[in-house]
Design brief:
four-stranded mixed sheet; four-stranded antiparallel sheet; mainly beta; 2 domains; 1 helix; single chain; Neuraminidase
């Protein structure tokens, strides 16, 4: 008869409860519960969170799941407004210096960065930093909207955008000024940035790159694994090798090579963004276009969970 010891070369551990410091694949017998258990990969899910005070879309966002930031966006009465998230509720923050929409943010709630935008009419290269209380003007990037943005307040990475045509410019920010980086492989807008200035992902984009992921090493771009479908203007968070992206209700995670579809958003929508400094296991999606411009959701992925064997 095949035994666990014969397969694994070790005996099944017997404990009174569940062991501490568990690792993936670990199996044991819980003597109190009279059950065989294993520590395995779990399945993440989205849950509904408190809605924004002012619904909006195509806004700039920053932060982590428990300390988020939203600024600007459509409709017109939202274009200067900021809100801060503490993990349970939203509170009004100070207004942007330049009211706008169709732009991106990155960084954290106390060190945020917002770049570009649409001014109705006209394109903006406005760059603003948030210190946890107020926004301050910095050196402009080349004007454009619907760009991608990754990195931090002192090491940002802007990619693409629209200035009447798609842009292939990639620019690096050092906390005070912009310098040219390695050009994007195509002229693109409606793009999402994830990661750092030296290890970034560019996701989706118009025209024709909605299903593409590109990887940046600090100087050049290379092909990454394709997204599950055409996802322009997605929400993204995490790193180049452990990312999450959500668009129009769908969600997928990236391991540095390939994407895997995971649990859907509860409210399908687009033209939103979230806590892009979050992780692939814990992030938030803040607002988005019709039909949920104020709805917010939180993603939690219990990457390892305890399961109990049952007989059948």
């Amino acid at each position: 008869m095949t035994t666990y010891k014969g397969i694994k070369g070790l005996s099944l551990q017997t404990v009174a409860g569940d062991p501490s410091n568990l690792s993936a694949g670990q199996i044991w017998y819980n003597n109190s519960a009279k059950k065989i258990k294993v520590f395995k990969a779990g399945a993440g899910a989205w849950s509904t969170a408190t809605a924004l005070n002012t619904g909006r879309s195509v806004q700039a966002t920053a932060g982590i799941q428990t300390a988020g930031l939203v600024a600007g966006g459509n409709p017109a009465d939202a274009r200067a407004l900021s809100e801060e998230w503490n993990g349970s509720a939203w509170a009004e923050g100070n207004n942007l210096q330049t009211a706008r929409s169709s732009f991106r943010g990155t960084g954290t709630q106390t060190a945020g960065l917002a770049v570009g935008g649409w001014l109705t009419p006209g394109y903006s290269g406005a760059t603003e930093e948030y210190d946890g209380t107020s926004w301050s003007e910095q050196s402009d990037r080349n004007a454009g909207y619907n760009l991608g943005l990754a990195g931090t307040q002192t090491a940002g990475l802007a990619m693409g955008g629209y200035d009447g045509n798609g842009m292939n410019e990639v620019d690096e920010y050092d906390g005070s000024s912009w310098t040219a980086g390695g050009n994007y492989p195509a002229s693109v807008y409606n793009i999402t940035g994830i990661g750092t200035q030296t290890a970034a992902l560019g996701l989706g984009g118009t025209p024709g790159l909605g299903a593409k992921a590109k990887e940046y090493n600090g100087s050049t771009w290379s092909e990454g694994g394709d997204l599950p479908a055409d996802w322009a203007w997605t929400h993204g968070a995490g790193t180049q090798t452990a990312a999450i992206s959500a668009f129009d209700g769908l969600c997928a995670t990236y391991n540095g090579t390939a994407w895997a579809e995971v649990g859907d958003l509860n409210t399908p929508r687009r033209e939103g963004d979230g806590s892009n400094a979050g992780t692939s296991a814990a992030t938030s999606y803040y607002a988005g276009g019709d039909p949920g411009p104020s709805a917010c959701e939180e993603w939690d992925d219990p990457s390892l969970v305890t399961a109990t064997f049952t007989s059948s």
